[in-house]
Task: structure prediction
Amino acid sequence: MLRRHAAVIHLLHYRKWCTSNNFESMLPQDTKEHKKAAIDKERGDRQLSVTEHFGPEDLDTKSIPYSDKALETAVLEWLIETNQPIQVFGNAAFKKLLDIASRAT
Result:
């Protein structure tokens, strides 16, 4: 409430006082401007290009071409890493999942 009063009634006097006393203004509008200025300074006053934003392509996440051997290897790695029981291979829902995955292009 007091900040609103100061911003409306005593704006010029408050800013003059801030300048003469080396004090950063705490009025809402001034605070927003200080934050924006800090962000702009951090960025170097420029907008990132698309390539800078996304960075270089990560070769580890590139899709692997489908092959039965690659699918089998991936399933075995998943089975071991997630500590799944060997009975999962006999499960009808798991077989359906593999069947759908094997048709993916």
Observations:
- The longest helix spans residues 28-43.
